[in-house]
Amino acid sequence: MTTTVLDPTAEQRPATRERSQRPESLSGLTVGLLDISKPRGDVFLDRVEEALCALGARVTRYAKPTFTKPAPVDLRHEIATQCDAVIEALAD
Amino acid sequence: MLGGTTRPSDEVVALIPPNLVEGTVEKVAVNAVMAGCRPEYLPVVLAALEAICTDEFNMHGVLATTMSVGPILVVNGPIAAAIGMNSGINVLGHGNRANSSIGRAVQLVLRNVGGGAPGGIDRATLGHMGKQGICFAEDEAGSPWNSLAEERGFDRSQSTVTAFCGEGPRLVVDQLSRSPESLTRSLAASLRSAVSPRLVLGMDGMLVLSPEHMARYRDAGWDRARFLAELTEYLMFDTDEIIAGADGIEEGLPPGLAGHRLPKFRPGGLLVVHAGGPAGLFSAIIGGWMNGPGGSDPVTREITP
Fold first, then answer.
1. For chain A, how many helices (H) and strands (E)?
2. Cβ-count burial of B88 within 10 angstroms (0-12 exposed, 13-18 middle, 19+ buried)?
3. Residue B269 belongs to what domain range?
4. For B66-82, what is the mean pLDDT?
């Protein structure tokens, strides 16, 4: 008698990728700040922006339309193509 | 299990969040077996997954939130009795195979196929026992009102499942009200505290009205519309009373909303279901989560073979 075992999972494995090289310095680089649109996230990111600018970075601000859903693909693409690094902030 | 549906085993039912995996009928069936479903329950599981894996229901967000919410599934129509679902005694509890296993199967699909495991994408601070899986039927035969599904645009001959993003149920005790006016005020007093007595409009709610409470409205000739209209009157808040800082409580509405009168729920934001055992002057409240395009809206899907 043959027994067939069925897998209840997606039978997928996450792709493994090398992490991007960490920059030696932020001077002259563009850093994206992604606000997930939770209350007061902007307060935190305003301070982060000040600190990054003091280090010589250029800062570009982004925001998710709502914190309850993943960032839209277009927004992720925009950040990936316009920034050297990104910081995502959660706050309440 | 696959014999419970006419749909081919390789048909993709939905993209299962959070990993947006193509969930086939076969994968759902495997998880339904693990949950303890009988084959005739499978169409309900499939329709429930179609309901929650929509942009409106936003299952990804429901999983990821730190709030303690999950899909609450309500079945209407002929299939409920046909597969032996419970709409009576202990309706929100255990003891009925269909009620217990349908919700469980949906949760297993989310976890096993979609990858939404607690501690991973599921970030709930506390969770609730209904996240094991919660599914129940409305007592339509014993209700003088139109059903939840009819209220949401479906015909009584159609079988449907409605998914509502909710907390665990909370009992409302009122054993003394003998008039619909008194009971309505009493239910409203409890509903005002759903999720938080300091928050209005941003979250929907569900009221599971028991047969003995429903009797007050049946005897007085109130229909669903009359009940909701009267209830809404008692669910109005003077915002000054719940503004942040009022009564020494920092939680509350932003100061800019002072001086208004606002309802607890948005229009249509309170779902009312008739269910429960024949004796007991109790109902139940299930608080919601963020509603609208920036959260989760209730979704109803027809159950097909």
1. 2, 3
2. middle
3. 2-302
4. 97
